Amino acid sequence: MQKILIESADLSTRHALDGLSPTSAVEVRLAASGQLGQLADMANREIPGVAVTEADLVQFLRDDPESIFVFQRGGRLLGGVAFLYLNDRGFDALVLDDIDLTAPRREFLARAGEDVSAIYTWALAGHGRAVLGLGNVAAYLRKPRFIAADHYAQPSTAAGRDLLVALGFKPTPSFQPDLWCFQRSRHIDASPPAINTGSGALHHGRF
Predict the structure, then answer these.
(1) What pLDDT, in 10s, does the model give residues 100-127?
(2) Burial of 206 (0-12, 13-18, 19+ CB in 10 A)
(3) At what angle do helices 54-63 and 36-46 cross, to 10 degrees?
(4) DSSP code string of 121-158
(5) Least confident interval from 12-21, 97-106, 135-144
(6) pTM for the whole thing?
(7) CB 83 within 8 A of CB 119
(8) Is residue 180 classed as helix, strand or coil in its secondary structure?
C-alpha cells in the first residue's frame, strides 16, 4: 500500500511525535503471529484501496520482528501499525519514487537489528483509543537503532492528514507523491526503553 489511514485522530492540540507520552490506557506490544490475520482484516476494512493478506504481514514479521505493533485494551485488538525500516538505498528510493511500497525489495530494507536510515509508516489503522498507543510506539522508536531516522508517511484520509499535522509532520519535497516527514531532533535523549517481545505492554513512563 502506498498511503495510510489513521482512524480516530483524537488529538485536540499539537503533540510532536517524539514528545508524546506513553500511556497505560492502551496496551502496546510487538505483534505476535497469531494476531496477523485480525490485523490484515482490519487494514482491508478500514484503509481505502488496500488489499493486504495475512501472508504479507507474516513476511513483514519474519523480515524484522520489530516492524509491527498492536494496540489492545482488555484483550480486545484496537488496531496496529506496520513500519518499513529503510536503509540508505531504500531512503533514496523512497524520495525518488523508485520503490514499490506495496512489496518493497529486500535490498531497500534494513536487516533486523541494523541501524535504520528512515522509518516509513506502511500502514496504521485503528479505532477508539488506539491512537493513544502512538506514544508507546514513539518511545520504542527512540532506541539507538532508530533514533537517527526521520519518520515518513502518506495520509489517505483527511483524518490521517490532520493527525500528521498534529504530530509535527510536514510535506517534504520529493518525487514520491504526497510524502510527509517528521524530522527528528538530533539532540533527543537516546536512552533506550525496555525491549518488549510481545509478552507485556510497552509502558516506559514520560519522555
Answers:
(1) 988 889 999 999 999 999 999 988 877 7
(2) exposed
(3) 120
(4) EEEEEE-GGGGGGHHHHHHHTTSTTTTTPEEEE-B-SH
(5) 12-21
(6) 0.80
(7) yes
(8) strand
